[in-house]
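Quick one:
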Amino acid sequence: MLKKLLLVAALAFPMMASAQTLKVGIVDVDEIVQKLPDYAEAQTKLSDTSKKYEDEYAKLNEEMKRRYDELEKMGDDELPAIRERKVKDFQEYQLKIQQFEQSATQELSRYQQDLMAPIYTKVNNAIQSVGQEGGYSLIEAKISQIVLYYADPVVDITNEVKAKLGVN
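Output:
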């Protein structure tokens, strides 16, 4: 019985000791990312690329409107073969626009991920560095919609990470 008691005490003591030394930090990653010059540059590139897609999409829509107007202007006396060809042509063009829209959306999303990946890696490295230097046991992302409460043992390290990255 004494052996069991000693075993339980031996197992519980390290857990109690580690609970006392637990140091928890939170960090607002979005705030940090948005202050980085890399982020502004990435947003500019993304915006420029998006504008090019929007311009092309507008051209495609103008052509579709032209084709639609052409269909509308056809008289009842138009030959059925010509009408069918123009309707089919219009429908194929609609499909072409839909495919372009889907492709552009996917490409923009992929481009955004490619632009943001090195930025998040940079921030993550800074967080890890601050965590190691500060002796933190755990650092969690501060998400304003989710954090309901935190007490004194939790430290907001956002400013430390920003300082590590050289941003205000």
